[in-house]
Amino acid sequence: MSIKLRVQELRDELAKRGLDTTGLKPALVARLDEAIEAEDKKDDKESDNGASSKDEDKSTVVDKDEDKADGKKTHPRDDDDDQTAQAAPKRVKLEDVDGMLVAELKDTLAEMGCSTAGIKAALKKRLKDALKAADKAQDASKAATKGATSKNKDKAVVTDGNDAEEEKKIVTMSKKGRAVLDPQLPDHIQTNFHVIEDGNDIYDAMLNQTNVGGNNNKYYVIQALEEDGGNKFFLFTRWGRVGAKGQQKLDSTYSRQQAIMSFQNQFYSKTCNHWINRAKFEPVPGKYTWLEMDYEDGDAEEEKPVNDKPKKPRGPTKLKPEVEKLIKLICNINMMKQQMTEIGYDAKKMPLGKLSKSTILKGYDVLKRIAAALESKASRSTLAELSSEFYTVIPHDFGFKNMSQFVITDAPTLKKKLEMVEALGEIELASKILKPQDDDEDDPAFGQYKSLKCNLEPVPMDGADAEWIKEYVSNTHAETHSSYALEVEQIYEVGRENEDERFKPFAGEKNRMLLWHGSRLCNWTGILSQGLRIAPPEAPVTGYMFGKGVYFADMVSKSANYCYTSPSENTGILLLCEVALGEMRELYQSDYQADKLPPGKLSTKGVGGTAPDPAQIKTLDDGVVVPMGKAKSGDRNGSLLYNEYIVYNTAQIRMKYLLLTKFEYKTRSYW
């Protein structure tokens, strides 16, 4: 029984199935139970097409009535006034309630929109009543769906998306032309229809609306569909709370032009913006905001000739095994999706491969305004309004939690959201770099490697270079970072295209050091292909302790913390860079304007209280200093525990070594 598993065990089981691993224990239990139930029923497939009417001129509605149990809502509504609310997902099994703790009972009741007041016995009774009502409504809905037959598939059909069989569709996306068909569309529609395109107009819209004060976090999908043969046309809409499949409606239209007009009318109805003027989209309070998609990679796809020849089996890759392992790790879109889901991003609503640069810049811009509001001690209502705007632009999946707890009210939360947007920027770049090419079909890993334009040469792990690099790792692991040990699995020598040429003006600087830089796995495709980059002007300066620059450390664990690994996802990547520091400006406290260097200074050093022993440095043949001495405490005059080095010109950086590492977790540590 899933309820008996620990939280980490639940997350591991969900990860094996490629499912979302975020949320509290009751949500994890429910998610795993639903997955297991779906697996058990995979041979007992039910109809995917919902119910339909015999009357050609009417619409059929299939709706679960869970909200009406005992006259109370079972979860907060997030639906439009003209639509029926989506059903609450089943959280736990009825027989599990008696074994739940008070905290688990309250969490589950809160997620279902029920009162959490009272003693344990009252909480149990309330949860059991809610679950019974939900089960009864769900059984009635399934019976209605199973008993309905379709004699005319051109009608408007509204369905609720909570059936277990529908869960399988979330991982399947059909693409014809430049737009991806909504994964919740019935199978026969996905097989025979495509999104209408007319020149640069692609009639596909993802809308979002978040209002933390009103506990709203909802989406609205609109697609104008055309049969591949051009004889039938539909307007498809789907709506609900973020993270839920919600409800959907499929309206028949008489012509292609009518489908387009219906799309434009619906877009205006939900946004108060005209579709033809969407390039100058202006958000309207109380209405949805349009999330711009990137369709750049689709032009060639729809014109690609069909190849009926059977695919030849893939031969061995041209890559060395050590390089192939690294490429498969960092060029994995599913890994990127999982990492972003773990920090709250809703990759189902805004697929990572469709992120537009303008959306990411809008996210930065809102965070910049939140930073200004925090600095001016703005009211909570102002911060709530700005937070709503951020979550509207950058979709988050909060499940059925109360939105008021997600107002961005402090610098640490702002910093986390800034790191999320930075990661999305890297993924936006990676999705373009990793587009498959026909000539790489038999060796995709080699094709991905070529797209990086970065030479990666495995370093012999029993050689002299590996020896001193591993010693650098061992000596500079800080005592306060004792929750994990670092095991170096493989070292690669890095040579980025044209980086030596850019570094030439700084190659003669006397103060050049080999320093650490860490980052999430999902960022490395962008880093290796484009280099380490500085945040754009749209980003808030308050998110960076010493201004917008590229940050390095001389303590390996200081950088390793930025890999954001976990006991269940314990692979990380660290970079050693030659950094031309020149004359440094030393600071003991944060300074958001530190990038405005005094004349003659090339970099900033945030001085920490503990650093590698300068008496144990290693100097390489080309004069680069490796601060690989054991950690030594000095006078602590500032707030930093460890040194930080910041440069504001990326030409001062030359990548030298990349380390594939395992994080062996023990106990808690402090940054």
UniProtKB/TrEMBL annotation:
Compositional bias (Low complexity): 140-150
NAD in keyword set: yes
Domain PARP alpha-helical: 316-435
EC number(s) recorded for this UniProt protein: 2.4.2.-
Domain SAP: from-to ranges: 2-36, 97-131
One Gene Ontology molecular-function label: nucleotidyltransferase activity
GO cellular component, one term: nucleus
Localisation: Nucleus
Function according to Swiss-Prot or TrEMBL: Involved in the base excision repair (BER) pathway, by catalyzing the poly(ADP-ribosyl)ation of a limited number of acceptor proteins involved in chromatin architecture and in DNA metabolism. This modification follows DNA damages and appears as an obligatory step in a detection/signaling pathway leading to the reparation of DNA strand breaks.
PANTHER family with a match to the protein in the record: DNA LIGASE, POLY [ADP-RIBOSE] POLYMERASE 2
Designated name of the protein: Poly [ADP-ribose] polymerase
Source organism: Riccia sorocarpa
